[in-house]
Design brief:
TIM Barrel; 5 domains; Jelly Rolls; 797 residues; Immunoglobulin-like; six-stranded antiparallel β-sheet; eight-stranded parallel β-barrel; globular
Amino acid sequence: MRKIVPLNFNWRYSNDFKDEYIRRDYDDNHFKCVDIPHTNHEVPLNNFNEKDYQFVSCYRKRLHIEEKMGNKRYILNFDGVGHIAVIYVNGVEIAKHYGGYTAFQADITDAVSTGDNILVVQVDSRETNPIPPFGGTIDYLTYGGIYREVNLYILNENHIENVFIKTLDVLDVPGVELDLRVNLSKEMRARVMVNAPDGTHLKTVEESINTCDSSISFPMEEVLLWDIDSPNLYQFVIELIDGDEVVDQVIEYTGFREARFTAKGFYLNGRKLKLHGINRHQIYPYVGYAMPKSVQEKDAEIIKNQLGFNLVRTSHYPQSKHFLNACDRLGLLVFEEITGWQYVGGESWQNVLLDNLREMIIRDRNHPSIIIWGVRVNESADNEDLYRKTNQLAKELDGTRATGGVRCFKKSQLLEDVYTYNDFSLTTGDVVLQEVKDVIGENEVPYLITEYLGHTFPTKRFDRESRRLEHALRHARVINACQGVEEISGAIAWSMNDYNTHEDFGSGDGICYHGILDMFRIPKLAAYTYMAEYSKTPFIEVSTNFDIGEYDSSFIDSVYVFTNCDYVEILRNGENIGRFYTDREMFPNMKHPPIMIPDLFGNVLVEKEGFSEKEAEKIKRFVREVARRGDLDKLTEKESAIISDPEEQKLAWQLYGEYVANWGRKKVNYTFNGYIGGKLVKTIVKGSVNKYDLKISPDQTTLVIADTYDATRVVIEETADNDNLVQYGFEPVQISVSDELELIGPSLISLISGKAAFWVKTRDRDGPGTITVSSPKYGVRSITINITDSTESSIMG
């Protein structure tokens, strides 16, 4: 039987490389002790030299093998090393891998011996390397280090290399075709056991095999489909049997589902499904790509459960297996693509791309969440020779999925199954999305929008309210436009989170503010557009805190409510000013369009002041025009045409000051009550502030030390009355942790627009860990994180 030994603790690291580091007897006590995942250089949040991580480094580890067994193979598996890795064991070069985003193996059987062995990994993280994605400009940082996990596989000489489980005819007569690649020296038996999502054993199939490549087919009487709302996963246990001995076992999970792109849209399990997706960079503050399992899984949970998307694109490279496993469990569809950004190099560069494509598909083709392979370098020019090869290779490795290739120009040569296109049409004009035929030409082919907005309207979480609102409304306009066109399979927003980038891009501080979340996964206002549209629980968020000084001439033009409620009722200091419904004139295709509140008078002019409906509307129009400009001095011709009598003008302005502007008066409270089916389901209150508080909220309160360290995000939030965010809170805070934990990033930070976040990770001990946050304004606050150690003793030191 195979044994998998995690090799993630107690590595020795140096931020340089010398030939002497390879020697078995080299004294590395002055190297830094690190755990994997590890970034070769921690960077500040912003304003740093991007070349700081672009160097060659060295990782060393002791492997102690109690007794080397002659009938075993010892194979190292690296999930991700950025970007060229050379593997040495006991001073001998074993393997070299090109590409920072795909897993690779190194057979060290002939190099290891009983007792202590020394593993050395040379890591070249320079962006001058002639491999994908390097060669041109890149709109993201690529970081370095052994940033994903490392394992040692101890296998029999006869063992399973990989398994591909193809689910067939799932809507009619479901079946399985299982392709098996085995390292085989004689005839043996392969046994396949299938277990249902609830663990019930369903079927056992056993066949003799005598070749390295075999296929086993069998029917499934009845299956539960894998879908976005019911992601049923079946367990397949595959065993290689010699006589009565099970010599190897592999466990895979997959789902029964049919994913089909057509010229009329996308279909999942026979029903049409509009894809609403988000692009994800695997980038985190300070440590770049180097985050463990639970943090990777959290991103998938945010995308599916918090934001409500049903698709994620792994822009612009293959991503963590933990992230993809979480997508399988959550029912989050995936567009996974090869490495690259616009540039395509020469023959050797392209050969690495093809190798990486092969590695990506073989690793990930059992994931039911993946519905399309991206086989074209993002936004690259047409290249018939290369992209015929990538498509052919993808089909050879997996003929069950569609291929796509992301481009940013119209009427490109289509070699893939789906025309995937970045549509950045929405800028200042009326065009939201391109007409489908203008992009793809006259042929009827499947069409998917793979990016929109992003760089066309970068928005910071600390921007002024009006820009944050416009950012949110632009996202709503694209959702609406996409929903209204049958031929569009869906659209994928750019992007999930802000990210560090090269000096050629971004806002001058090394950050692209293109996300609907910031780098710490804290929502911007635009995120609420998606939460309202896709959330399955009652949701309300309001576009303003009613601070008149946030607006020119102290005039709040329009208030928007992002909600999935049927309507909202607004109360001003307890008085009902009206019932408001979604704006279906501007957003006719959205399920839950934003609600526009055109004015805050509501019904008060009629019900309290005694004006007729017609008179009230005239007053509202008049004050709206005047307030936008300033005051009653030097009225324009348009303003005077609405109300010509000076006394009526003064009265209208007085009423505006009393009921809306609140000049010189105590700030009022606005209550928003949301109703679904006539029932009150959600209430939020905006307005006056009398007290402030500081909240500390971890994503997880329990961390588990297992194959490697665990980590969690902690969010700090400054709130005012009714749990409202202090939008312009920039309080400095000092963070400290107990010995059980390690802080990722600096210990002294400031809130940014009322919020901040940081990550902590476990060290080498269990027990309760304490996180303390202190500030001049709020004093000392502490929370406790429970830590359990589930690591097993192994033969490795």
